[in-house]
Amino acid sequence: MYQTWEELEKSIENCQKCKLWKTRQNIVFGVGNKKAKIMFIGEGPGADEDMQGEPFVGRAGKLMNMAFDMVGIKREEVYIANIVKCRPPGNRNPEDDESYACMDYLRNQVLLIKPEIIVLLGSVALKNILGKEYGITSSRGKWIERKGIKYMPTWHPAALLRDESKKVDFIKDLMEVIKEDK
Ligand code: URA
Q1: Beta strand 38-42 with 117-121: parallel, antiparallel or unpaired?
Q2: Which CATH architecture describes the domain 5-181?
Q3: What is the mean pLDDT of the chain?
């Protein structure tokens, strides 16, 4: 594990640890406050993120920003990253070998940030971070504590685009996070 952001960022520059490097435009490392108390972890970059090199800048990201505004979370105060840092072609889910290959980068980010709270956005984040035995439908909205970090699983913002009724849950879960952060 690297002790500085400079070393960590340098180590990923030409990453070819999995096959996703072949089709990526940009590595989407993560964005936000490197001393954030709250960290958000998504699944992997989509087309917009791949083009811009920043997580959650497409449709799902815009919806997430709106939800942030509603509950008073400032995007620049939190840290946002993904399970995989390169776009899976056609927006498929990351495959296990890809998530596994990429996990050390995320672990290192968590180590450097030392967040108190990690919001897991959707099933891929939940299963990769806490274990395959967890399901998003039964776990969302409930705190899970591990090694001094409080995890809040919630819907992936893209799921809200497909099912409007999930927006209420998402806002509720974010408000729970804000409450805990006070
Ligand atoms: N979906 C994700 O999981 N992450 C992003 O960065 C964008 C969309």
Answers
A1: parallel
A2: 3-Layer(aba) Sandwich (3.40)
A3: 98
The structural domains of the chain, with segments of one domain joined by +, span 5-181
* Helices 59-71 + 166-181 axis angle, to 10: 50
CB-hemisphere CA count at 13 Å for 119? 30
pLDDT at residue 182 in the model: 76
Find out whether the beta carbon of 123 lies less than 6 Å from any atom of ligand 1.
Answer: no
For 149, the token pair is 């970090």
Residue 103 Cα to ligand 1 middle (Å):
16
Structure tokens at 181: 């952060």
68 Cβ contact partners less than 8 Å away, ≥ 6 residues apart = 74, 75, 174
* HEC profile of 35-47: CCCEEEEECCCCH
**Local structure of 81: helix, strand or coil:** strand
CA of 108 to the centre of ligand 1 (A): 19
Q: What are phi and psi of 32, to 5 degrees?
A: 125, -160
